[in-house]
Amino acid sequence: MLDEGYIVQKTGNNDRRQRLLFATAKGEALVGKLAGLQTDRINHALSEIGPPGADIVRQFLRAMIDQDDPDKVLQTILSPPNATAKE
User: Fold this and answer.
1) Which residue from 52, 56, 69, 81 has the highest number of Cβ atoms inside 10 Å of its Cβ?
2) Distance between CA atoms of 46 and 13, rounded to whole angstroms?
3) Comparing C-alpha atoms, which of 34, 48, 50, 42 is closest to residue 1?
4) pLDDT per residue over 23-72, tens digit each?
5) pLDDT tens sequence across 26-37
């Protein structure tokens, strides 16, 4: 992923041995594309199982959200693909 330009590696501020990885704009675009494909698959599966089953799956997916920071999930979902890109 480094060689293809999806992520960049930076040295840690406190420990120069650290190698911190950050997504580039290209990497963020890939994340957005993959998330969109996954969302499409989930929506298709929900439509196949009908309303009662879909409600159970939605409850499960909501339960998977980090309870300590649920707004982070919404921010990630609703932000434009390049809004959080780090280069």
Assistant:
1) 81
2) 45
3) 34
4) 999 999 999 999 999 989 988 888 888 888 888 888 887 788 777 776 77
5) 999 999 999 999
Token digits of residue 5: 């330009």
20 in Cβ contact with 12 (< 8 Å):
yes
**Helix ranges, the chain (H):** 25-64, 70-78
The span from the CA of 39 to the CA of 41, in Å, is 5
Which residues have CB under 8 Å from 68's CB, separation 6+?
none
Task: Give the CA distances from residue 65 to residues 42, 49, 69, in Å, rounded to whole numbers and listed in that order.
Answer: 16, 22, 8
For residue 75, give both structure tokens: 């921010």
